[in-house]
Specification:
By secondary structure, the chain is mainly alpha-helical. It has 15 helices and 2 strands. Helix 2 crosses helix 8, helix 11 packs antiparallel against helix 12 and helix 13 packs across helix 14.
Length: about 400
């Protein structure tokens, strides 16, 4: 009978055990590399979150410089030093912005004061109208008791508002700091526009430099054209609405016209209706029928602007389909908030112009199926619609 050597058996067992227990030589290096890559990813993710605010401000500053550059180029072409031309253009812009904000502040204070002083009379008239129209017997005391029945809710809301004063102050200060940062970088980018373009082109091969400069020119043309067309529409709207409000005898008609022109022209899609709220509130404190006339004038003017003024003005500057403009505003607002909504239309116009330059288009022959000028019978024959 064959006997197994105990020493050999022990060596075999030790070899099998060590083979099962030892790890591959590459595994520790792979684990260290994976931990290092994970650390780099977390560091990059943290840095991206810290720098996204700066990236947004730089994007806004770049678009502002694009919008200001045509005016600066025009002054520089007439022999004005580029730095001085940049200072003059931005000084005018800042003065207009400050004037608009001051006008808005005065309007808001006076409107709130007038509404508060006229509120009892307006409530009395509203209660009388409701009682007369719906055959009710409401009294002002009943409405006041109903309003202040849940006074704890009002008190808690006031307490929360008081606690948020410091948070509001810090938000305002942060907004002022961002505005100053964007203004400074916009001035630098505009004044040193030629140097900036030269520096960017120096990083590219000569074959690519022409395409980059052409895209840059398109961005300047479309962004500046958008600002020009909006400013021109704002002036026309301010004059028209200011004259109409003065005709009605509304106080501060010039300031209200400026408010209406700026908001209606620079706030996309819904700007006209937002701008109409303040004049309507002012008119309610004077004569409610004036508010109705203002609403009618706003609707008529909006139609006139959409179908007469805007096509003629944007034909020489920038034109974006209303549906595409609305979609771009929604997308820009979803990505970057209010800043994205404001930059969406000039960015879309630039992209549209760039695609129009490089995307091929083909001639489409005349076909009744495009205009849908014919209708099909059940038998398959096509017939033109009757003119009667």
């Amino acid at each position: 009978m064959h006997e197994t050597d105990p020493v050999a058996a022990d060596d075999t067992a030790d070899t099998e055990t060590s083979g099962r227990a030892s790890m591959p030589a590459w595994l520790p290096r792979a684990m260290v590399l994976a931990l290092a890559l994970l650390g780099l990813f977390e560091l990059a993710n943290w840095a991206a979150h810290q720098l996204i605010g700066i990236a947004i401000m730089m994007t806004v500053a770049f678009f502002v410089s694009l919008a200001m550059e045509p005016a600066v180029d025009g002054l520089a072409a007439r022999g004005v030093n580029r730095g001085l031309a940049t200072g003059v253009v931005f000084l005018i812009v800042f003065a207009c912005t400050a004037g608009f904000l001051a006008t808005l502040g005065v309007l808001m204070v006076e409107t709130v004061a007038n509404v508060v002083s006229e509120l009892p009379r307006l409530i009395d008239e509203l209660v009388d109208w409701v009682n007369h129209t719906f055959h009710q017997k409401f009294t002002l005391d009943q409405l006041r008791d109903r309003l202040f029945k849940d006074s704890d809710v009002i008190n808690s809301y006031a307490a929360r508002a008081a606690n948020n004063v410091w948070g509001l102050s810090s938000t305002v200060l942060a907004g002022v700091a961002k505005f100053v940062t964007i203004a400074l970088f916009s001035i630098y980018m505009t004044a040193d526009g030629p140097k900036l373009r030269r520096a960017v082109c120096s990083l590219l091969p000569p074959a690519k430099q022409g395409a980059v400069l052409h895209a840059w020119d398109l961005a300047i043309e479309k962004t500046g054209g958008y600002l020009y067309s909006r400013a021109l529409l704002a002036v026309i709207s301010a004059v028209a609405h200011g004259a109409f409000l003065a005709l009605l005898g509304i106080p501060n008609s010039i300031a209200l016209g400026i408010w209406f022109g700026v908001v209606a022209s620079f706030v996309p899609t819904i700007g006209t209706y937002l701008a109409g709220i303040l004049p309507v509130l002012v008119a309610l404190t004077i004569n409610p029928i004036y508010a109705v006339w203002i609403l009618i004038f706003v609707v008529v003017y909006q139609w006139l602007q959409d179908y007469v003024l805007q096509p003629r003005i944007t034909a020489k500057t920038v034109d974006v389909n209303p549906a595409i403009a609305l979609l771009s505003v929604i997308v820009g607002g979803a990505l970057l908030g209010a800043v994205g909504a404001l930059l969406a239309i000039p960015a879309t116009a630039t992209l549209q112009a760039f695609l129009g330059e490089y995307v091929p288009r083909y001639e489409v022959p005349e076909d009744p199926r495009i205009e849908r000028t014919e209708r099909t019978r059940k038998g398959g024959k096509r017939t033109r619609p009757s003119k009667s």
